[in-house]
Amino acid sequence: MLDINLMDAQLKQKQEELETRAKKLSDELMHVNEEISKDSEDRAQQLENEEVAEEIAEQTQQELQQVKHAILRIKQGEYTRCELCEEEIEQDRLMALPYVSLCVQCASDG
Fold first, then answer.
1. CB 101 within 8 A of CB 73
2. Which of 10, 44, 73, 94 is placed for a possible disulfide with 79 were both Cys, Cβ 3.0 to 4.6 Å?
3. In whole angstroms, what is the distance from residue 34 CA to residue 28 CA?
4. Is residue 73 assigned to a domain?
5. Most distant CA pair in the chain: distance in Å?
6. Tell me, what DSSP letter sits at residue 88?
């Protein structure tokens, strides 16, 4: 049986990790923008690195929102129910991806 309290604790820990990562990425992006090289080759590399960092920051924010949503679903007593079909989400799925909100069927249909 799925231990909801354990899942809640794991999600809160993941939330802290993602918030720390997001802060570091934000600081790095601000620092990169402050120090633009005058050398065109270095500047091109900086811009490429900045694009990668922005993509990682965006993915981190998306994952953070999913984690926060899962924590809210736990508080509302809806954590194990699919948001679309309202059937139970498979325990193995929740254990593998604790912030999912759709069952396998609904996720594959979407």
1. yes
2. 73
3. 10
4. yes
5. 60
6. B
